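3.2 Worked example (two chains)
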Amino acid sequence: MKKESQYDINLAKLALKTHHFEFELGPDFFALFDQPLVEQGDLHADVELIKTERVMTLNFHISGTVRLTCDRSLDEFDQPMDIEEQLLVRFGDESKELDDNVLQITPETQSLPLAQHLYDYIGLALPMKKLHPRFQNEADDNPDAPTKLIFSTRPADDAPDDDEPADPRWAALRNLN
């Protein structure tokens, strides 16, 4: 028996109605994946499966915390997660992924593995910039912090004087400011 099978749904015994499944996503779950995106967490997944003759709709609600490393200080911290996702599974001639949230399976398929989907939903919900909570409100606390970034290839000391004649090729670009 595979370790992943505890995150599979047995489709053969499901009637045409709404079903509810619960999964605990802890150390055993994250050990299934050799990806450094998320390695630790304590999450609870509620999955509502609505089965009809032609399609199954799976509504995921994943809540809990994952352990992340701060990009600034390298301190570890717990990031709260509250994820709502939907996966559509339709029946067809062959098994394939039609879209990010649409799968096609054959009617003879016995089980639907959810482990990779759960892991992907967690990974997609992670913030791009992983900041420890003590740094997250830092920009709000400092009213002098710049509100927009200005990129330049020339140092600030080397700013052009208004009296200096401009290169005619760049004159049109100056008017954009």
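3.2.1 Second chain
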Amino acid sequence: MIGFEILSRKRAISAEMVEKFRKLPVANISDCMSRMTAGGARLRPMHDGTLLAGPALTVSTRPGDNLMVHKALNLAQPGDVIVVDAGGDLTNAIIGEIMTSYAESRGIAGIIINGAIRDSGTIRRSAFPVYAAGVTHRGPYKDGPGVINGTIALDGMTIEPGDLILGDEDGLLCIPFDQAEAIYEQASAKHAAEEVTLANIAAGKLDTSWIDARLKALGCTVPTQG
């Protein structure tokens, strides 16, 4: 049935690549992806801020319904990130303490809900990564429909099953499976360069001459200081 099906995931980012990306801030990676990709500013960490990283297991569901999310919890492999597009609707919570506790017990790396959660106090005190758009006490329905392991998009960020999902306190990012190695190399170099900049700031040796050079190149008159 179209719109109510469970598909097979064809590939997934390796555990080795996941660990490599854990060392890099999401902001550095985003810069190297031309700042064109993001999971949406509404999707915020609802947990204690622990880093999220792992291959995506995608779910699209009718707003307010979590039947296919329950199935995804049983299908997910240890280390997977369950990414749920529930339409961004905040009327009904898609998950709460029971489902996150079960996910953690199965070794799932985290859950993203483009929608609402509940039991937010418990989740906020937990290290199990949960991102969502909001909170409501109203519970979900369990009627479907929905699709597991289909292509989804969160605020224009396309996610294919098996892509690398990253999340920190700045937000969420999807690394396409086929681009992971190239993006890692660029982001790693970006991070190393920023570490040098921070060291220069601490030592009082930061070179800011680029600011005036940029202003002049753009036609802005820069007065001579003296």
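3.3 Remarks
The mean pLDDT is 95.
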